[in-house]
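Before the break, one more example. Copy the sequence into your notebook; we will annotate it together after we see the structure.
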Amino acid sequence: MNSYWEDGKSTKRAVLNLSDLPDEVVSMTQAVLRGKNFIDADNNWQMKLTLPHGRMAAVTGTMKKQGFSKLLGGRSSR
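Here is what the structure looks like once it is written out:
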């Protein structure tokens, strides 16, 4: 809804009319506007590996070259 003043009165108008959309789309749109997140159930994915990039890759590479892993315990946490 868009509110504005006209002739000294507060007036509202619909910016987008959802009534022509299927009920499923309307309910999902309302849920998203309330802050709910959706993930496609058919797209069952799992993160297997993440690689450092940018500054983190530079810091990690420097630490490995300098032998920080031996200094900090040498055992990987993963």
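The first helix runs from residue 23 to 33. The mean pLDDT is 82. Try to locate both features in your own notes.
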